Amino acid sequence: MDISYVSTTEAAFLLNISTGRLRSLLNQNRVVGAKKVGRIWMMPLNDRDMPEIIPGRRGPEGTWNKNNRTGNTFVHVLRNTIDYNRDNKTSHPVIAVKVGNKKDYCHALKIKGPCQIVYQPHQPNRSQAGGARLWIEVEPQHIVERVYFSDGDYGPPPEVIQQRARFKNKKSKPKKRKPKKKKSKN
Predict the structure, then answer these.
(1) What are phi and psi of 39, to 5 degrees?
(2) How far is Cα of residue 83 from the mean position of the Cα atoms in its chain?
(3) pLDDT score at 128
(4) pTM of the model
């Protein structure tokens, strides 16, 4: 039987976790059969074509995928963040990558495999792309490698932080009740 190996980026994609989290698992010796070849970690794939992770003894259960990915990856360009970066001379990530219910932000992407650009001006994709009218869809088996600028700003871009704050304020505000009208005696 021929065992196939994957690099850190490919393994993180398959497990649906960040490369930083995977490196942390590698340093804890929790990736079964992982070995370092020069400066690169190589991990074997199990019979389900996934790297195998040893569960930790404490804390919450791991959130990595145990089965092959089934949903498409959606990529959108955050136009408001591009404008914000230009006006404020910042370099926040302007690309949002959504896989399932997990959203990540980056500065550049390498899509390894076929993809399609979808434009639906009259039918925005509210279920997966947050109401976007233009997005890139990547089939589940293809890797989308995120790239970050070394001098860039990290974390969610300003428009996402503002959107979250508006949602939180809307959720926490109590509903105003209209006073009841008194019936007049006639």
Answers:
(1) -105, 5
(2) 22
(3) 62
(4) 0.54
